[in-house]
Amino acid sequence: xxKLLLALLLLTAPALAQQARPxxxxxxxxxxxxxxxxxxxxxxxIVKYHASPSCRGLERCSDTIDPIALSxxxxxxxxxxxxx
Length: 84
Ligand SMILES: [Zn+2]
Hints:
Blueprint: H1 2-20, E1 37-41, E2 48-49, E3 65-69, H2 70-76, E4 78-79
Bound molecules: zinc ion (ZN).
């Protein structure tokens, strides 16, 4: 079984190598970014939203840090001065 697998690998390896290295790499279109997300300290007294859950402004958060859609965050909170 293993020998067969090895033989198969040896047979397909050159073909794979050729496929992996095309003469010229076509320029890929930039992948669409995932929906913009902000983070906030879910302490019940939400004032600011953050660009990253590891922002210094979130360090003191003793509650959960939750993601929120950026558009929602912008409508309800102010941007954190540290990460914005
Ligand atoms: Zn921040």
